[in-house]
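User: Hi! I have a protein structure encoded as tokens and I'd like to know what sequence might fold into it. I'm fairly new to this, so please keep things simple.
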């Protein structure tokens, strides 16, 4: 007996795919965020990833920084290899916590999913915050 997933796999051998696109083809919200926070960065690659149920947008800069957006153009994840996450993208509650507990650490990555935010710091710590920006997990 074949499952629905098996039928879809047979009918659509490549269910997920990526397509190179220009930043000007990203949703307006994503374009605005990039212009405000990464205007001095040179784009190495920009893509739209899509599957049967969703799509997302990714941009990788020549310095290694990367930003991922959801289908509506809201950022999901920002990774900064050579720099730090722009302060404008870090919620105030997280900034306050870091100011009091990790003054010398730099935010290298930030991800938001559901009602949570996760930040990765230059000291190697990964801190997860709930919707009220209370710490719910710290990993090293």
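Assistant: Happy to help. Inverse folding works backwards from shape to sequence: for each of the 140 positions I chose a residue that suits the local structure. Here it is:
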């Amino acid at each position: 007996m074949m499952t629905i997933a098996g039928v879809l796999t047979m009918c659509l051998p490549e269910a997920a795919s990526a397509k190179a696109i220009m930043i000007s083809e990203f949703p307006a919200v994503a374009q605005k965020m990039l212009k405000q926070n990464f205007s001095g960065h040179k784009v190495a690659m920009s893509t739209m990833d899509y599957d049967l149920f969703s799509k997302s947008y990714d941009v990788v800069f020549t310095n290694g920084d990367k930003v991922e957006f959801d289908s509506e153009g809201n950022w999901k994840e920002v990774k900064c290899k050579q720099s730090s996450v722009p302060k404008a993208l870090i919620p105030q509650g997280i900034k306050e916590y870091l100011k009091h507990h990790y003054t010398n650490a730099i935010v290298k990555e930030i991800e938001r999913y559901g009602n949570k935010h996760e930040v990765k710091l230059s000291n190697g710590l990964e801190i997860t915050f709930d919707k009220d920006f209370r710490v719910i997990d710290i990993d090293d």
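A useful reference point when you look it over: The first helix runs from residue 4 to 11. Feel free to ask if any position seems puzzling.
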